[in-house]
Write a structure and sequence with these properties.
This protein is α/β, with parallel strands linked by helices and 338 residues long. Helix content is 36%, strand content 20%. The chain has a 7-stranded mixed β-sheet, sandwiched between helices. A 6-stranded mixed β-sheet has the order 8-7-9-10-11-13, with helices on both faces. Helix 1 (61-73) links the parallel strand 2 (48-54) and strand 3 (80-86). It is elongated, with a radius of gyration of 21 Å.
Length: 338
């Protein structure tokens, strides 16, 4: 069934809803005089300096929404002097982090391209008095090196998708698996659950498992190569919406039916509005939710720190659901599409 969970989150090891999300539009107004929220300026009227490291906003609809949310929240009007850096390469992100630390930013916000390699920059930030908050993705680093992580549970996203696919009770699963950027938290989580299912079930087969780096055109090429090879397949498990769209383009060009009444099950992730409309139309079967609206939660964390309060929960996990072609409604699309 489809579940609307956009405006909720859970705290790993803690109580659900400690930081309540504001709604779909998380533009946060500047605090009123004397207020205690909204990114107040520091004593003396200085803006709070923030360095924000993100992936390329053009990577996907999800990333565009995520970047827009951050830019609309960390503004001068809300009391911040924000600098932004973008890259899908870990080494370039780390270089940006080091530059922000040298610039003396008070807070470093990081959506890491890769989970590895962050120990040194995070330690450097700590030594310099810069407090780090992770968003969107976790990293393989000791929790003492950052204040908190506001993230999606990518493992859960993958498991939810695989559970749904299991429930389709196909005689044989011949799967084209199109992966995202290798090593990213989203790729690792969404791949892990599928790999486990293939290993555990004799009737689950990977026809191909290949990265398209979140890119629609590359996904189309991967799918076309399978079609040209003559191999049989009945599932396309694409780790984001853009890659699912690229795969479907190859099917359409070859006259292969897909979706609710078709020969091939189509699965994507992220909940772009256009992707949910494909599910609604029966052209796709499944779309997993990944909530990009994390800025308001990060803002609440910073407000706590600025007030001298302790942030006790390290991992704040946004709850997410999914949509399928049997149960999706227009109301769900209006509420959850990005």
């Amino acid at each position: 069934m489809s579940i609307s969970r956009r405006n909720f989150l859970k705290v790993a090891g803690g109580t659900a809803g400690v930081f309540a999300l504001a709604g779909c539009n998380n533009t946060t107004p500047a605090a009123d005089d004397g207020g205690d929220e909204g990114g107040e300026e520091q004593a003396g009227g200085e803006l709070i300096s923030v360095g924000i490291i993100n992936n390329d906003p053009n990577e996907s609809g999800y990333r565009t929404a995520n970047d827009k949310d951050m830019k609309e929240t960390f503004t001068e009007e809300n009391g911040f002097a924000a600098e932004f850096a973008y890259s899908m390469k870990n080494e370039e992100q780390i270089a940006s982090a080091q530059q922000f630390i040298q610039n003396g930013v008070k807070y470093l916000l990081v959506s890491a391209a890769d989970t590895a390699g962050w120990d040194t920059p995070l330690q450097d930030a700590l030594d310099a008095g810069t407090q780090t908050i992770l968003f969107d993705r976790v990293v393989d680093a000791d929790e003492s090196l950052y204040v908190a992580a506001v993230v999606s549970d990518m493992d859960a996203e993958g498991q939810t998708a695989v559970d749904w696919l299991t429930d389709q009770a196909l005689d044989t699963y011949n799967i084209i698996h199109i992966q995202g950027v290798m090593g990213s938290a989203a790729q690792v989580g969404r791949t892990g659950a599928l790999n486990a299912a293939v290993e555990a079930n004799d009737n689950w087969n990977l026809v191909v498992q290949q990265t398209a780096d979140w890119n629609a055109e590359t996904a189309q090429q991967i799918t076309q190569s399978v079609i040209d090879s003559g191999q049989e397949f009945n599932v396309i498990y694409a780790e984001n919406d853009d890659m699912a769209r690229g795969a479907v383009a190859a099917l359409d060009a070859a006259g292969i039916t897909h979706g609710k009444d078709g020969d091939v099950i189509i699965m994507g992730f992220d909940h772009n509005t256009w992707a949910l409309e494909e599910v609604m139309a029966g052209n796709w079967n499944y779309d997993g939710q990944c909530n990009p609206y994390q800025a308001s939660t990060i803002l609440e964390i910073i407000d706590k720190l600025e007030a001298g309060e302790e942030v006790t929960e390290k991992k704040i996990i946004m709850e997410e659901g999914y949509a399928d072609c049997e149960t999706i409604t227009q109301e769900y699309i209006d509420e959850n599409g990005i």
